Amino acid sequence: MEFLASISDTRPLAGFDEHSLEWLGKLFKQTVGNEKEIRREEFNKIPFFTDRVFQIFDKDNSGTISLQEFLDAMHQFAGKSPDDKIKFLFKVYDIDGDGLIQLRELEHVMRVCMEENGIQFNEEQIKELTIALFDDADQANRGAITFEALKKQLEKHEGLLENLSISIDRWLVPPKPEMKQKSHLEFLTSLRPYQLTKPYVKNNYVYILFISIFISINMALFVTRLYEYRTSNGYVMLARACGQCLNFNCSFILVLILRQCITFLRTHGFNSVLPLDQHIYLHKLTGILIGTIVVYDEILNSNNYTISEWLLTSRPALFGLVEGFANPTGIILIILLVIIMMCSMPFVRRGGCFEVFYWSHLLYVPFWILMILHGPNFWKWFVGPGIMYLLEKIRRIAWSRSQLGKTYISSGLLLPSKVTHLVIKKPPHFVFHPGDYVFVNIPVIARYEWHPFTISSAPEQEGLKNLF
Description:
468 residues, mainly alpha, Recoverin, domain 1, Elongation Factor Tu (Ef-tu), domain 3, three-stranded antiparallel beta sheet, 7 strands
């Protein structure tokens, strides 16, 4: 570019490649036109700058910015040296330019950075976070943060510089050129879900194979039941086929929450042939399938019997472990299932109502009792998983009441990407393997709220343990 070549004192800029430098020149020329310097009102047209940044760029306080001043300021932030970025950050944070960052200045910057990154905090939370960061940085109790204090603070917390900085590097990336018009084949290919792409299948073949087997079992049960009732009318055939699938799924959903069995399989290498890490997702998926089948089954049954016949007469007395129990238990089962599913929604579990989810899920006890009474053959499917779950539950309760897992949190830290880091004292007789996780309960917060944390410490390490 001619005007770049005419600048005799322009030096190479670390952190910018030739393409980015050319783009900066074009950006400058597009803004100023035929003039050689940019005015404040023209500078504001560049969407990623503010009046405060203008003061930083205008080194000689002339009220205008030359190309060299523009590139020098960019170079200071885009350079590879972290010190350059911290110096630039300090200038941005020091709104009044007195060489010190006051509490109000830091609070203003925190608010702007959170808005930019889409983080939603109320005013009280922003003030608390600002005070915590300010007090930690102001070790000398000066009531203000110096450049050295800010530098130590950013070096102390890995990733804080990246999260709190205004990422000019990212803003200077030229926009992607418009894509050329796709062919019909390319358009149809772009509509293909990511789950059907070759990389996804290659990385998740164990999970895909398991889902395929799960679907095949349901289809086989459905078809064989249809054939068994082939002499009945269509509604009866489909209703009995749905009932057979419910027998399997209402038992299988229990297998997916046998935590101790799953942990045993994981520690003995079965993770390579079974999707053990997806057991919670599969549990939810099976629950959705059960709900869908139940609704469809009730629609089919409504075509064979009226509501009054189901509830008020003994006409459908053929069904149930005890004759006549199928109709009233079926209605109660639907009500229980609706309550369990509604209280398991993410907006309930993660919306501060975890204990609602916990207590509503205890309805599984009457649900399975009624399922045994509802279907004459369900107990045959349920007896194995039911005994295993009962043994796990007894062992879990015994461990909880023994107080062997009781410990205290030594420290906690909120990390980027919503990660919580806890440091706890190792409970006596606590044995674990690499990659294990532990369920943590803090009674003063919620007596029945448990959350899984991955253990990042080595098994042979004594004393404090790190959890994430």
